[in-house]
Design a protein that fits this description.
The chain has 21 helices and 16 strands. With 550 residues, it is α/β, with parallel strands linked by helices. Phosphoenolpyruvate binds next to β10 and α16.
């Protein structure tokens, strides 16, 4: 049996499936058939076990994670909650339901109090889920551990889950949800993992099924025959010819610098090894996903210094915190929103917490002073002239010299002639630009097919930005995943992109295909792609002209 999804990264992997358990749902509110005393005894045992689990997890994790997990272990013993559970069990509730209700009430109380309400509530609910999992005797929805390498199968993965994967063990990822630009996919690409996302039907995969995960074809084969396994193993073992790490350029010599998208200073060295000419997008929020309080200026300064030192003498583009949507940061006061991608995200949240933004810009300016790096700083989710002017003037007033914005909200692209000249550079975030232009949530597998930057509507917006860049002599970069697609890279340059930033794993293929076209050819192809009526037709124009690439 074969399941189809969206392939991410390169290559093929074969291995046994190991499922990440689905998130635990709300226990049913039914009368308990057991004696209250027996039920309560089960609760006591589960609470003790969870307390021990949390303390042990904390010891293993160390650092800030240890503090958070220890605080959670105390929540598992909180006398008021324990009393509340006892009372509910006495009223005839099941142990699971009593735990759920008592912690839910506790979470709501905490959310009504002082600082970091969202994080406190989330921590309490996480404790409840752990206790309920114990009571039900089911595994927790965390990344499973195994002594042998495996293919991780999940409904979806949070960015933090993907960021902490043990690459020695995880051969590939298969998720039911997600699109090619979801953060799971981005992190998978960064880690050079084989992945298939948006794999509808992957719910039927059970632990131990042998899987062939083919990122190039976007397929997952269940329990394949021996011939297919041998063929896949042969492809997986294929060693690509090493390609020279020359700077990115078109066939006519036009330079197109190729940079890397990274989420931590530790990703710098591997990116340089793959030929990155600098960093075109440093997603700072990945450093702070677990932070409960805003990181200090000194801490940030030292992290940014690490990054800049790894790219000494090269350009480093840092994006200030892009919190919201699927990357919530407790210290920006995120609360539940029905449509978080359309909510208080990026610059919108930072503007409401200007102290956090000022601290980050101050830390960046300090790290630049420390290292002499060629630092460029940009803001995410900027909608118009007012927001652009606000960010550019604030950043300059705090000592930053090269300041720009990410063009990823369609309004900013439509207003490119007004917005671009205010900046020292702009960078196209094609992931969000596509989701907002096509009105399709990039996290939602059911609409993943809309998330296609080849759509002529997206290409036209890119062209508006390219034209505005050329008219005002403002450099235009692309930092969305579109730049990782070699054919799209040609189209982007033809539409006016001066440089491209991508997952480091894509640098080699993009470098190779750019070298095959002149600027004139790229522009002609882009013009023809723009005139098409569908994403598939636009891509076909470029694919037919360039033949198969890779
Ligand atoms: C984008 O939207 O294209 C982008 C680069 O930012 P992110 O994927 O982090 O939203
Ligand atoms: Mg974005």
């Amino acid at each position: 049996m074969q399941i189809t999804g969206i392939g991410v990264g390169h290559g093929v992997a074969v291995g046994p499936a190991l499922r990440m358990p689905d998130p635990i749902g709300e226990p049913e509110d039914v009368a308990s058939p057991a004696e209250p005393d027996d039920e309560y005894h089960r609760v006591e045992t589960a609470l003790t076990a969870v307390t021990g689990d949390l303390v042990e997890l904390g010891h293993r994790a160390g650092g800030e994670a240890e503090e958070i997990l220890e605080a959670q272990s105390l929540m598992a013993q909180d006398p008021a909650v324990v009393d509340d559970i006892r009372q509910r069990v006495g009223d005839g509730k099941t142990a699971e339901r009593a735990v759920f209700e008592a912690y839910e009430e506790y979470a709501k109380v905490l959310e009504g109090l002082g600082d970091n309400p969202a994080a406190r509530g989330a921590d309490v609910r996480d404790v409840a889920r752990r206790v309920i999992a114990r009571l039900k005797g089911v595994a927790l929805p965390t990344i499973p551990r195994s002594d042998v390498p495996f293919v991780l199968v999940a409904a979806d993965l949070a960015p933090a889950d993907t960021a902490t994967l043990d690459l020695g063990k995880v051969l590939a990822i298969v998720t039911r949800d997600g699109s090619s630009s979801s953060h799971t996919a981005i992190l998978a690409r960064n880690k050079n993992l084989v992945a298939v996302v948006g794999a509808r039907g992957s719910e039927s995969i059970v632990n131990g099924h042998t899987l062939i995960v083919d990122a190039e074809r976007g397929t997952v084969t269940l329990d394949p025959d021996r011939v297919s396994v041998a063929a896949a193993a042969e492809r997986g073992g294929r060693v690509a010819e090493p390609r020279p790490l020359t700077p990115g350029a078109l066939g006519d010599g036009t330079p197109v610098p190729l940079l890397a998208n990274v989420g931590s200073p530790e990703e710098a060295a591997p990116a340089v090894a793959l030929g990155a000419e600098g960093v075109g997008l440093f997603r700072t929020e990945f450093l702070y996903l677990d932070a409960r309080t805003a990181p200090s200026v000194d801490l940030q300064r030292s992290r940014y210094r690490d990054l800049m030192a790894a790219f000494a003498g090269r350009k480093v583009v840092v994006r200030v915190l892009d919190a919201g949507a699927d990357k919530q940061l407790a210290f920006l006061g995120h609360t539940h929103e029905e449509n978080p991608a359309l909510g208080r995200r990026g610059l919108r949240a930072l503007r409401e917490h200007e102290d956090v933004l000022r601290d980050q810009l101050t830390a960046l300016a300090g790290a630049q002073q420390d290292t002499g790096a060629d630092l460029w700083v940009m803001a995410p989710m900027v909608a118009d002239v007012d927001e652009t002017a606000y960010f550019v003037s604030l950043a300059r007033s705090l000592g930053l010299q090269t300041v720009g914005i990410t063009v990823e909200v369609p309004s900013a692209a439509v207003l490119a002639d007004q917005v671009v000249p205010l900046c020292d550079f702009v960078s196209l975030g094609t992931n969000d630009l596509t989701q907002y232009t096509l009105a399709a949530d990039r996290m939602l597998g059911s609409v993943a097919h809309y998330q296609d930057p080849w759509h002529p509507s997206v290409l036209r917006l890119v062209k508006l930005v390219g034209d505005a860049g050329r008219a005002s002599h403002t450099p235009v970069a692309v930092c969305g995943e579109a730049a990782s697609d070699p054919l799209m890279a040609v189209a982007l340059v033809g539409l006016g992109a001066d440089e491209l930033s991508m997952s480091p794993g894509a640098l080699g293929d993009v470098r190779a295909v750019l070298a095959r076209v002149t600027l004139k050819q790229a522009r002609d192809l882009a013009t023809r792609a723009l005139a098409q009526t569908s994403a598939a037709a636009a891509r076909a124009v470029v694919a037919d002209a360039l033949g198969s690439v890779g």
